Amino acid sequence: MKRRTYLATASTTAAIAIAGCAGGIGTTDDTDDPDEPNESDGNETDGDGDDPSGDDDLPEMVGTFDDFEDLSAWEAVAGSLEADSERMSMGSQSAHLSMAESETQARIVRELSEPIDVEGVVPGLALSTDSSTNVVIQLQDAGGDFHQFLQYTYDGQPFVRQNFGHTEVTGDVDLNEITEIHITFSGGDDNESHLWVDDLHFVPGVEDGRVMVQFQGGFESDYTHAFPIMEEYDLTGATFVAPERIRITDEASGDRMTEDQLAELVDAGWSLGTVGARGLQLHRVDSDQVESDILDPLAWFEDKGYDDAQYFAFPGGRYDPEMYELVGENYDLGFAGRYMSQGWASNRLNITRISADAGQRNLNADQLVDILDWTAEHGGITTIVFYKMDQEDASALEAMASRLAEHRSAGDLELITPGEIANEYVP
User: Fold this and answer.
1) Structural domains in the chain (count)
2) Which DSSP category does 175 fall into?
3) Mind listing the pLDDT tens digit of every residue in the chain (427 residues)?
4) What is the dihedral of CA 311, 317, 318, 324, to 10 degrees?
């Protein structure tokens, strides 16, 4: 293997093309404040055995590419690599990456015996970690140019496939001749860190960009600020509500929508989902209340006559195996991942979304426009999240709506609903 300078800083490794994304765009605030953001060559398969839909027209690469049953093709160029037969998502072992306290990242590289063609596909991994971290996949050509894909994973989550967002392109990458695959995760908390990866796979990409504008929490600003702007540009959104916070009438106190306001949005073509009964981060909910927080919204939707609302946005992107299973058994989709421009969903419970960082409630106008432009150029499914809005946020939304309307008119972006993702982009 050609020895390059792999030991870049963690921030450089995780940087993506849009300014502010490395530590901001794509992250989700970890707070329960209702006014703040509360709320993913011996080992190769031929792609046929794991075809997600059986469609003969899918790219040849679709399916599991490396099951990590043999690690001899991989080299640790930062940190360490070993097999772990006690922790895996498939087969008999996984790849265990670790870094010492003094290290800033771990990186493993597979130099391919023959180049692979990744045109029209997006990579993903099954992930498990003992410390929350960004995980990076780079598909690199012989000249060193690469496409980068990113996802964030939390400790305590089940060892399952994660959807990755497409976040960076360097140079003029030859996607028909990819010669190396890099997998990286970053430390930074002065502790020894560990990541387990399994089931390196490819899913079909989404050539023409699709965008969902998702409003989380059911705040009244969905109706007073967002609705008129979206209507002006002939756009619809998706509102993910906390039913216990919805007000019966406008005489009731609170900052959430009334039942009539919500009904008007749905009548206008908006999609409906939930952030749980109270909109609380589930890992902070008492264990005896988790089930009701997840399931009660479904009964509320049924009682109100909303029959297409089986979509759950995990507040803060946090869940444990029990929560994950409960949502999976009762909802069609879960939104928990980060970043933009994902491909088909290899995991329907970890659909990606992009939002502001902990110090910024909603994305600003420049960030929103950049996200749209990226998705228009590179394709994929991008879900943009807004929380409670003020007038400045409304101005940013209007700038975004105007650019989105331009891209729709040009034919390089379309709106997408949760139902369309579930029906068209989940194998």
Assistant:
1) 2
2) T
3) 333 333 333 333 333 333 333 333 433 444 444 344 443 333 444 333 344 444 568 899 999 999 999 999 999 999 999 999 999 999 999 999 999 988 999 999 999 999 999 999 999 999 999 989 999 999 999 999 999 999 999 999 999 999 999 999 999 999 999 999 999 999 766 688 999 999 999 999 999 999 999 999 999 999 999 999 999 999 999 999 999 999 999 899 999 999 999 999 999 999 999 999 999 999 999 999 999 999 999 999 999 999 999 999 999 999 999 999 999 999 999 999 999 999 999 999 999 999 998 788 999 999 999 999 999 999 999 999 999 999 999 999 999 999 999 999 999 999 999 999 999 999 8
4) 30
Distance CA 31, CA 36 (A): 7
Final residue of a structural domain among 203, 220, 251: 203
Q: Which residue has 């040009």 as its token pair?
A: 410
- State the DSSP string of 260-285: HHHHHHHHTT-EEEES-SS---GGGS
Residues 6+ away with beta carbon under 8 Å from 419:
271, 308, 332
- pTM recorded for the entire structure: 0.88
Length of the chain: 427
Residues 412/374, Cβ–Cβ less than 8 Å: no
In a domain, residue 35? The reply is: no
> Which structure tokens are listed for 277?
């009964």
Question: Does one domain contain both 186 and 221?
Answer: no
> Is residue 178 domain-shared with residue 232, that is, in the same domain?
no
Tokens of 378: 């590179």
Shared domain check, 154 and 246: no
Tell whether 301 and 318 lie within a shared domain: yes
